[in-house]
Amino acid sequence: MTTTREDFREILRLVRPGSRVLDVGCGEGALLDLLTHDKQVDGRGLEISAKGVAACMARGLSVVQGDADQDLDHFPDRTFDYAILSQTLQATRQPRHVLNELLRIADRAIVSFPNFGHWRVRWSLLSRGRMPETKALPMPWWSTPNIHLCTLVDFLALTDDLNVRVDACAAFAGTGPGRSINPSSPLENWRAESCLFMLSRATPASATTARELPPASGDLFDG
Amino acid sequence: MADLDMASSALNDGGTWRFPASEPLRLDSGGVIEGLEVAYQTYGQLNADRSNAVLICHALTMDQYVASAHPTTGKPGWWPRLVGPGKPLDPARHFIICSNVIGGCMGSTGPASINPATGKPWALSFPVITIADMVRAQAMLVRALGVETLFAVVGGSMGGMQVQQWAVDYPERLASAVIIASASRHSAQNIAFHEVGRQAIMADPDWRGGAYADHGTRPEKGLAVARMAAHITYLSEPALQRKFGRELQRDGLSWGFDADFQVESYLRHQGASFVDRFDANSYLYITRAMDYFDIAAGHGGVLANAFTRARHMRFCVLSFTSDWLYPTPESRHIVRALTASGCRVAFVEIESDKGHDAFLLDEPVMDAALSGFLGSVERDRGPA
Are B195 and B180 in contact (CB under 8 A)? Predict the structure, then answer.
């Protein structure tokens, strides 16, 4: 990967320097490498492909071969400050379980995924009557690893269901930089090609305020 | 090999260290061995701040000659992928220690050694030892060599068992651990194969109840059969098939029990050459130590509890797809326990059709992973 992915840029902005980070589905370690060098994090990774893990190990990264569905369970509670799941949630077998686990083992989860509610996806399905193939979702239905696609609104409903607080949300479209958004705004579900959430466990006391979005705290997100 | 020896001869040292009389080795069995000797080799030099020492733990039938010629066979060191100029462990930069396990037969005290109390070989009066006993002896040797902290302890197979034991018993003396093609305990199948080997040795009339040295015999046939059976477990079915298939030694069948097939001839050769360099009683004792190995057993049956003092350490665990002796789920079990106890661990299952022996063979992915891991441990500790 020669250019930094746009969601990597946002993640780099969100993560506190020197924190403990787990990158789930870390590939060949591009993001972990960036976080280690730019933010001096104590970074660890989980990656399903042997090729990816071997590349990570050759870079000196602490990465375990495993998958999000099965291997998060073995981490103790609150091992990390951040658990990152970049463009991987839609490929997990049990997204709901994975999300819960991320917020058990880390104080904050940073999750990005392609938005199936984007207008191009809707238009592609409506006009052609076929499974959409867009820039964010480039593969045909029979070879895509994405088995649990969702829209921004679907995801928001899940966070609500799990009583999870949205600390920040950014939308991406085209090759432009991320845009801080209010995820409850109906228009965003049409506009965001993919989106990124920073989540934390809502404490009972703050549960009410958490639903009154956005708390998109300016120190975490300038927008 | 000659080049390596020439280049490293100045950096190649070794000897036999004798436990001081005041410090006998206390065994898990409750016994004590006095005047225990540990034979070892070192490569490279300890640096000024004593931060570049690495211990390599050898597997069942290996020895301390990890990177120099074996005195009996003349073969070069057994782990050339890992140790040597320009390799992940380089005598130019690292002080590399490798010692023969106790119970062994390459200079460390074992059943073939003379029992000072009787003036005769120990044979079966030698106490049963454990992996932890081997490690306890290594820990004393390492200290005697002036090394308080090892930057890494590395081992494959039984070596990987010793590495885990080090992390459990002496974590404060380690910065990192590399566990390759190993397991945290012997499975029923592992024990079963070892039992076949032991029975083959003990069934040989020349074994003489273990006292073959007194009778001037050697149970060579039994030991060779043990080696042949074990050797099959070190390879994979595809590797055997690729190497030998059903190829014959000569044209046509013998219609008898000669080694018609190449694979038979190969195994016979493996067995015959093994007896030249290995002691049958040592084989019994060391396989027993491996069978008794079960780290979790000493920690309430929970493996993760064993590693709670190792949280400052970094771990690297490697397995191979075709290794059916210590298959990947065994390594994954270790990785999950390390994760659960809060240790920092890297793990990959390497694609290989070479079976258990892959860790000793040409596996570029393993080389890259080990270089990366050891390099980053060095960087974390700062310039040596």
Answer: no
CA atoms of B65 and B359, how far apart (whole Å): 16
Instruction: Say which of A63, A75, A79 has its CB closest to residue B346.
Output: A63
- Residue of chain A minimizing CA distance to B314: A62
Q: Which residues of chain A have pLDDT under 70?
A: 1-4, 204-223
Q: Which residues of B138-148 are buried (b: 16+ CB within 10 A; e: fewer)?
A: bbbbbeebebe
CA distance B111 to B113: 5
Closest CA in chain B for residue A79: B342
Residue in A60, A74, A79 nearest the CB of B336: A74
B375 closest CB neighbour out of A60, A63, A66:
A60
Residue with tokens 């076929």: A130
Domain containing A90 equals 6-211
The answer to whether B331 and B317 have CB atoms below 8 angstroms apart is yes
| Residues of A engaging B, defined by a Cβ cutoff of 8 Å | 44, 50, 53-54, 56-66, 71, 74-76, 79
Assigned token pair, A185? 């705004």
Token pair recorded at residue B78: 């057994």
Q: Examine residue A220 and state whether it is found in any structural domain, yes or no.
A: no
Q: What is the ipTM of this complex?
A: 0.85
Residue type, B384: A
- Domains of chain B from N-terminus onward: 2-189+294-381 (3.40.50.1820), 191-288 (1.10.1740.110)
Q: Is B57 on the interface with A (CB under 8 A)?
A: no
Name the token pair of B2.
Answer: 């000659």
The type of residue at A79 is: T
Amino acid present at A5: R
Q: Tell me which DSSP letter residue A91 carries.
A: G
Question: A18: domain CATH number?
Answer: 3.40.50.150
Query: In the annotation, is B3 catalytic?
Result: no
Q: Which of B184, B279, B356, B357 is catalytic?
A: B356
Strands (E), chain B: 12-18, 25-26, 32-33, 37-43, 53-57, 95-99, 114-115, 120-121, 152-156, 176-180, 314-320, 344-350
Q: What's the distance, CA B9 to chain centroid?
A: 24
For residue A107, the surrounding DSSP H or E stretch is strand A106-114
User: Alpha-carbon distance B346 to B225, whole Å?
Assistant: 38
pTM attached to this predicted model: 0.91
Residues of B in contact with A76 (CB under 8 A): 340, 342
Return the sign of the alpha-carbon dihedral for residues A54, A55, A60, A64.
Answer: negative
What's the pLDDT tens digit per position in B115-164?
988 999 999 999 999 999 999 999 999 999 999 999 999 999 999 999 99
Given the residues B63, B204, B323, B357, the one annotated as active site: B323
Domain assignment of residue A140, yes or no: yes
- What would the pLDDT profile of A138-176 be if each residue is shown by its tens digit? 999 999 999 999 999 999 999 999 999 999 999 998 888
